[in-house]
């Protein structure tokens, strides 16, 4: 791992998110592997058309959500959040239900969704996204990558 990390540091990473010029890799975060049973997508952003925040989840995690939205929009569950009331626990549960989660995973996902909204509000972010959000083999929910 150490030798691969040294190779990556300083190189230029080019992806659809960095653009053609890419970005220099300045630091790495190395985590232990995860037992992934399912991958999900979760994000909060502003729906300018409705002038409300929208929380979106999809069972199509780990992929470009723009592609899912364009090709199979029915795979995205959306909850609009009244700016005067904020996100309510029933809305977080609706999102977890939309991912077909049960038991401990359902409770953990709902809790994470409420915390994502709190992060979104407290930082005045334009986007809070976890992709992928995973279900582990032992029924836990874990964020593998996020941005805001």
Automatic annotation (TrEMBL):
Keyword Metal-binding attributed: yes
Keywords: Ligase, Magnesium, Metal-binding, Nucleotide-binding
Gene Ontology biological process terms in this record: succinyl-CoA metabolic process; tricarboxylic acid cycle
Matching Pfam families: ATP-grasp_2 (PF08442)
MF terms in GO: ATP binding; metal ion binding; succinate-CoA ligase (ADP-forming) activity
Needed co-factor(s): Mg(2+)
InterPro entries: ATP-grasp_succ-CoA_synth-type, ATP_grasp_subdomain_1
SUPFAM superfamilies, per database record: Glutathione synthetase ATP-binding domain-like
Residue ranges constituting the ATP-grasp fold succinyl-CoA synthetase-type domain according to the UniProt record: 2-134
CC per GO annotation: cytosol; succinate-CoA ligase complex
PANTHER family: SUCCINATE--COA LIGASE [GDP-FORMING] SUBUNIT BETA, MITOCHONDRIAL (PTHR11815:SF10), SUCCINYL-COA SYNTHETASE BETA CHAIN (PTHR11815)
Protein name per its UniProtKB record: ATP-grasp fold succinyl-CoA synthetase-type domain-containing protein
Organism encoding this protein: marine metagenome
């Amino acid at each position: 791992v150490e030798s691969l990390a040294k190779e990556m540091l300083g190189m230029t990473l080019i992806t659809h998110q960095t653009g053609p010029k890419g970005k220099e890799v300045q630091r790495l975060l190395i985590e232990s592997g995860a037992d992934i049973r399912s991958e999900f997508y979760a994000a909060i952003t502003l729906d300018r058309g409705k002038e409300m925040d929208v929380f979106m989840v999809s069972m199509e995690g780990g992929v470009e959500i723009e592609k899912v939205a364009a090709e199979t929009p029915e795979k995205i569950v959306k909850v609009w959040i009244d700016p005067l009331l904020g996100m309510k626990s029933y809305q977080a549960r609706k999102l977890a239900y939309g991912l077909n989660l049960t038991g401990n995973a359902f409770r953990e996902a709902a809790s994470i969704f409420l915390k994502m909204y709190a992060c979104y509000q407290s930082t005045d972010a334009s986007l809070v996204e976890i992709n992928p959000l995973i279900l582990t083999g032992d029924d836990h929910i874990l964020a593998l990558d996020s941005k805001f």
